Amino acid sequence: MSGGIAAYKAASLARGLVKAGATVQAVLTEHAAAFVGPPTFAGLTGRPAHTGVLTDAHRVLHVRLARETDVAVFAPATANLLAKLAHGLCDDLVTSVFMCLRCPVVLAPAMHTEMWAHPATRANLAVLRDRGATVVEPGEGALAGGDSGPGRLADEDELLEAVARALGTASGPLAGRRVLVTAGGTREPIDPVRFIGNRSSGKMGYALAAEAARRGARVDLVSGPSHLADPPGLRSVRRIETARQMRDAVMQLCDDADVVVKAAAVADFRPASYAAQKVKKDDEGFTGVPLERNPDILAELGRRKGHRVLVGFAAETDLAEERGREKLHRKGLDLIVVNRVDAPDAGFNVDTNRAVLLSAGGGRSEVALTSKAGLARVVWDRVESLLDETRPPAPADASTP
Ligand code: PMT
Fold first, then answer.
1. pLDDT band at 170 (very low <50, low <70, confident <90, very high)
2. Is 74's pLDDT higher than 90?
3. CB–CB of 62/93 below 8 Å?
4. 178-272+287-390: what CATH class?
5. Cα of 338 to ligand 1 centre, how many Å?
6. Distance between CA atoms of 61 and 6, rounded to whole angstroms?
7. Ligand 1 close to Cβ of residue 296 (< 6 A)
8. For 327-341, what is each residue's pLDDT tens digit?
9. Cα 262 to averaged position of ligand 1 atoms, centre (Å)
10. Strand 148-152, strand 195-196: pairing
11. Can you tell me the distance from the alpha carbon of 172 to that of 179, in angstroms, rounded to the nearest whole number?
12. Of 108, 50, 39, which is closest to residue 79 (Cα–Cα)?
């Protein structure tokens, strides 16, 4: 715990974890202890709550605590704590333990809206996410001092769920499964001002990621630029811009994935060169934007498929099923979701969709107009059967922070 008014909720969280069967070790910063005293946590957890790095100095307390930990939860994580964790400062017990952890890390930020929105906090969170920490986004509501807005510690149930997911003990039909979802469109820069992009909003991919998390999976999301908030309960969200950045993120994350779902609209081409200065409209030498091919991420995954279930999307305007089937086979997929993008109520940037699901085994099913959340449920039902047919669940997560 670090020092914010939400420290009082950490007492209830500690109790909830104990009730769920965990052995809970409370570690408080000096400021957290000013909000809620260590005896409260000692009483709730049945173990002394620690605040000082010099307690038990001969046994190197911070190293010992970190080694004994299966999952570390930082709740509340103040803006100051996030900054220290992102930069590797360790000037107290909480930060020193963090530096020694080799288990999953769950961060539950809580702070005033201004601090939450500050670019420094956003950048620190991006670093921590990039290193594998799960961030349970704060909710919106009453804050200290009579204020209200985004920044309030996430609900206890959401935090307990995130801990279970980090431990690989979440319940649900996808518990123990590792899922990678891509969403949104990529942007291929022409100059500092312009890019080649598409109309993908991320809605379809975010709905798929949220549904997988609800079903207990450990979910990583790689997203192109999107205005949507991170879906709750994900292990990580990486935001990228270009197809090549998406490829790198996917290749880093796919190794231990049981399922990869590529709902992203990836630009097939990018400008062959990038103009470092803005191209002026009266530049007579400018004759157009020569293009070169981007990597086909899904086809690359298909070539090194291994045990993974691979699901692609096909965004089509004509000959939809025919083209979808061709992509299913050419890219080595198990399943492809063919959706038309020329109707006003389906495809890009709307809340609804309709699709035809084609599977490698020859299966075909139609999904009539429904919400993107509804289509996500159908897709995961289908993936669950594919997983059941072939692959037992993986053992619990042991990734490092
Ligand atoms: O984000 P929304 O606004 O909700 O819109 C959702 C959507 C229409 C973008 C989504 O439902 C969808 O259809 N996504 C796939 C878009 C697409 O790129 O389709 P495609 O037919 O061009 O590509 C086929 C598959 O190959 C896709 O899974 C794509 O992610 C993948 N691909 C394509 C090109 C490339 N260079 N690398 C890839 O991995």
1. confident
2. yes
3. yes
4. alpha beta
5. 10
6. 26
7. yes
8. 999 999 999 999 999
9. 7
10. unpaired
11. 14
12. 108
- Closest ligand 1 atom to 323 CA: 21
Ligand 1 centroid – CA 203 distance (Å): 12
Identify the CATH number of the domain defined by range 7-167. Answer: 3.40.50.1950
Probe target for ligand 1 pocket from 186, 198, 266, with the most ligand atoms within 8 Å of CB: 266
Q: What is the pLDDT of residue 360?
A: 96
**pLDDT mean across residues, the chain:** 93
Report whether residue 264 contacts ligand 1, using a CB cutoff of 6 Å: yes
Question: Do the two domains 7-167 and 178-272+287-390 of this chain adopt the same fold?
Answer: yes
What is the tens place of the pLDDT at every residue in 179-196?
Answer: 999 999 999 999 999 999
Closest ligand 1 atom number to CA of residue 202: 1
State what percent of residues in the chain have pLDDT above 90: 80
| 269 in contact with ligand 1, CB cutoff 6 A | no
- Ligand 1 within 6 A of 62 CB? no
Nearest C-alpha to atom 35 of ligand 1 is from which residue? 296
Q: Percent of the chain, pLDDT > 70?
A: 97
- Best residue for ligand 1 mutational test, from 262, 319, 322 (most atoms within 8 Å of Cβ): 262
Question: Which protein residue has the closest C-alpha to ligand 1 atom 27?
Answer: 313
What is the structure's pLDDT at 119?
97
CA distance 368 to 374: 10
The per-residue pLDDT for range 263-279, each reduced to its tens digit, is 999 999 999 999 999 99
Q: pLDDT grade, residue 230 (50/70/90)?
A: confident
Domain boundaries in the chain? 7-167, 178-272+287-390
Residue with CA closest to ligand 1 atom 17: 265
**What is the predicted pLDDT for the residue at 374?**
95
